[in-house]
Amino acid sequence: MKGKKNALSWFGTIGFSIMGVIYILPILIVLMNSFKKKVFINKEPFLLASAKTFTGIENYITAINKYELLSAVGWTVFITVGSVLVILVCTSMCAWYITRITTRFTKLLYLLCVFSMVVPFQMVMFTLSLVADRTGLRTPWGIIIIYLGFGAGLAVFMFCGFVKSIPLEIEEAAMIDGCTPLRTFFSVVLPIMKPTYISVGILETMWIWNDFLLPYLVLDLNKYKTISIAVQYMKGSYGRVDMGAIMAALILAVIPVIVFYLACQKHIIKGVAAGAVKG
Q1: Among 55, 145, 196, 237, which residue has the least CB neighbours within 10 Å?
Q2: Residues 164-202: pLDDT tens digits?
């Protein structure tokens, strides 16, 4: 019996290792080609850079200077950080209210938040683009409000599950000591919700940072471009593509979110389990 378990363990380890290599291989190929000359990226995409094909950081310089990648990075950081902060604060307060105040309105509000996770984005994207245009939301500040609407469903669902696990007596004791509802939330409830805050923050950050379609539909592209849109615009007229600059831009776009994920990954399972299983 123990021998069968060990064999299954080894097969599982080997299988998942192979899967891991398959998933990471495209990133390694992009990284390798980002240091090659444009001519050799199409000719020898799977070969390591040699003295003949190596171009140093020229592709990165081209991406930053010629295609204004730093501006795109700046707007992406602004939109991502702003959206995630607004989502975390607003949805956690909403989830606390929904969980502690049981009325028909709060039950309906919770169902609407859960239902929003089921509705495909393609059903609302044309209407959303029209509404954003008419209400002046085609800016980095306006798109934060739109991201709040689309990110609220999952966040409220996870926060509600975690709030149910918080003993009500802790909040009652704080209110007896003279805390207002707002102070009770920010001083007592919020610190306890830290695992779910981190988990929701990671998931929302990875989604917003890599999103292409929503910024493309909403933002005024003559003024504002995110990284994903800037990479798309590197394709020139008549099908010309600066593959070297694109490879460099992709690496610059991927590195921040990978570093952020690796730094916070240990909190994901803990936060998801706490927010989606308990209660």
Answers
A1: 237
A2: 888 888 888 888 888 888 888 888 888 888 888 888 888
The per-residue pLDDT for 82 is 95
Give the chain's mean pLDDT.
83
Give me the residue label for tokens 């495909």. Answer: 120
Dist CA 106 CA 102 (whole Å):
6
Query: For the chain, which residues make up each domain, given as ranges?
Result: 58-276
pLDDT tens, 194-236? 888 888 888 899 899 989 889 998 988 888 889 888 888 877 6
d(CA 108, CA 119) in angstroms, rounded, equals: 16
Distance CA 249, CA 230 (A): 9
Q: What is the CA radius of gyration of the chain?
A: 23
| 58-276 CATH fold | MetI-like fold (1.10.3720)
Tokens of 56: 């140093």
pLDDT digits (tens, 9 = 90+) for 22-45: 888 888 888 888 888 877 887 777
d(CA 30, CA 36): 10
Residue in the block written with tokens 């509600």: 160
